[in-house]
Amino acid sequence: MKNIFIFIFLVSITNVSMAQNIVPNPSFEDTSNNYLRIGIDYIPASNWSSFGNSPDFFYTGNLDFSGVPGNGFGFQAAHSGNKYCGFYSFLDNALIHPYREFIGVKLNESLKKGTRYFVNFKVSLADSANCGSNNLGAVFSNHEYSDSVVAPINNKAHIINKNIILEKNKWVSISGAFTADSNYQYLIIGNFFNDATTQRTILKDYDCTAYYYIDDVCVSTDSLLCNDDFDSTTIDDVILFPNPASEKITIESKQRISKDKLLFFDVLGKNATSNVVIQQAYDGHRLFVDVRNLASAMYVLRLIDAENNLHLLKFIKQ
Q1: CA–CA distance, 130 with 35 (Å, rounded to integer)
Q2: Mind listing the pLDDT tens digit for each residue in 233-292?
Q3: What is the pTM of this model?
């Protein structure tokens, strides 16, 4: 019964105060403001850019170096949608040491000093990487950097992952929380620690080449929105497919589910359920949803099943 009260409480506050993800273009799907390029000039995902050296952009439809799922660094499906970015967190064979690549973005709104924020993003070690590193993390800044004016490597970060991530072909969450000590405008992601303080695990050979894909970046005052308890396709005993989709989706559950217990919210916290048409299957375990009237964006679905379990699913409308 506890979960039903949690669900009712969450829904009740969503319409009036649900926080948003303040990261623009969080899954790199929007490329409307840039040409599809890779390399040091910029990241061709709208709003994002290089904050140090030459991070890369990968997208479905490109069959060469920057393709998805196959590309010059390996094979990896996107965590959501069909695009993601990538960067070196450690590279022995470089002319400049320590060599790091950073991606950065100007937030939709500045952080509020004294406010607690939650951060989450997904990473996966590339097939071509012969080692993995720790210290992947996030820094908030009031300064904008570039491929030539690199973000500082000063052994400080607001969010730090101290574990060495070695998972390939699997997305791993990096998450944390902190209280803003300034009204920061920018978010930067990478490894901000020098060679001496960065731990590595060599998988083969001797030199370390650690390259990570990154997808689905979230910064919010809402811990529910920026957590790793929900995935883009499967949550507990609930499956949503296809994802992303442009016309219709199906939601299947081991427990019985009702169309009256399904809600759609956009990243601003606005209830978008009235823009979809939900049909109930006779077996009670499936919902068929027409999403054609939804704007192209990311949505959080909140579903409660017949056993009063709360399920949160992320859905990308193309």
Answers
A1: 31
A2: 434 478 888 878 889 999 988 889 999 999 998 866 788 999 999 999 888 899 999 999
A3: 0.69
Instruction: Judge whether residue 61 has pLDDT over 80.
Output: no
Check residue 64 and give its pLDDT: 65
Q: In this structure, are residues 304 and 4 in contact, taking their beta carbons and an 8 Å threshold?
A: yes
Asked if 238 and 303 touch (Cβ cutoff 8 Å), the reply is: yes
DSSP string, the chain: -HHHHHHHHHHHHHHHH-----SSSTTS---TTS-S--SSS--SSTTEEEEES--EEEEET--STTEESEETTEE---SSTTEEEEEEEEESS-SSSS---EEEEE-SSPPPTT-EEEEEEEEEE-TT-SEEES-EEEEEESS---SSSPPP-SS--SEEE-SPP--BSS-EEEEEEEE-SS---EEEEEE-S-GGG--EEE-SSSS-EEEEEEEEEEEES-TTTTSSS--SSEETTEEEESSSBSSEEEEEESS-EEEEEEEEEETT--B-GGGSEEEE-TTSSEEEEE-TTS-SEEEEEEEEETT--EEEEEEEE-
In this prediction, residues 21-33 reach a mean pLDDT of 87
Residue 37: pLDDT above 50?
no
The pLDDT value given to residue 3: 43
